[in-house]
Amino acid sequence: MLLQRLDFLLPYTVKRLTSADVDEILALQAKHLEYHQHYQTDQVTKEDVLAELEALPPKALPEQKFYLGFYVKDELVVLVDLVLDHPKANCAWLGLVMTEKTKLRQHYATKVLTALKAALKREGYKELLTSSALSDVNAQGFLNALGFEQGMVTWVYDPKLGRDIQVVLRGIEL
Question: What InterPro entries does its record include (predicted)?
């Protein structure tokens, strides 16, 4: 039902992405070197993308995960990684929002997240939560502009970096 609501609320085509879409996902993500520097030491790879497509938080099931692509005229313009009913019922976890680099500052991600919030609310969800690296000032500004409240700042071990990184937990009521 979530995909149908998003299709209705947006002028974009929405698709649930799979491993068959890995090259397209990688092409979009590879352009965001500054984002990936917060979370890994090397350039993002096909293996990273494949792992991200399958990655689940503790106790989450594969059917809760929605790795979504938003398209304008067959061009992938926004990626969203979403896990429903995590970390608790009626709550959704936003793992990633990334816009095609050439489309930045054209409000694609803002429109997608605004529609996503409305669709989740209609589905009975109460909160949308996320986290981002404290050092990622672009993400912090984007989340602030969307009304996400800043929560706790904590340290999380990042296996790709081999060290802890400081993250900010964020949330918004739907």
Answer: Acyl_CoA_acyltransferase, GNAT_dom
Q: What is the pLDDT of residues 126-162, one digit of tens each?
A: 999 999 999 999 999 999 999 999 999 999 887 777 8
What are the CA-CA distances from residue 81 to residues 17, 85, 95, 101, 164 (Å)? 10, 13, 5, 17, 22
**What span, in angstroms and rounded, lies between the C-alpha atoms of 127 and 38?**
26
Query: Is the bond preceding residue 11 a cis peptide, omega within 30 degrees?
Result: no
CA neighbor of 19 nearest in space, from 61, 47, 57, 40: 47
- Intra-chain end-to-end CA distance of the chain, in Å: 17
pTM: 0.92
What is the chain's Cα-based Rg?
15
